[in-house]
Amino acid sequence: MSVNFDSTFGFDPGVQDSSMAARGLYATMVTWCDHQIYTRPDSFDGTFDLKRVRSVGGNARLVRELVENGLFEEVGEGLYRVVTRRGLAVFGSFKNQKKPLTPEEAAELHEKKAAAGHAGGKASGAARRAKAEANAKQNEADAKQTASTSTKQTGSTTVPNQTMPSSSPNPSGPESKQTVSIAEIEARAMLDPFATAWSLYPKHTGSPDRARIAWQAIVDGRAVTPRATPEALLAAVTRYQKAVRDGDADDRFVKGMGRWLEEGGYLDWLPAPPKPRYTWGICDEQWLQDHILSQVPEGSFEGSIVGTFWANVKAGGDPEQAAERVVKELTRKGRPS
Question: Which domains does the chain have, with CATH numbers?
Answer without folding.
Answer: 3-101 (1.10.10), 191-269 (no CATH), 285-333 (no CATH)
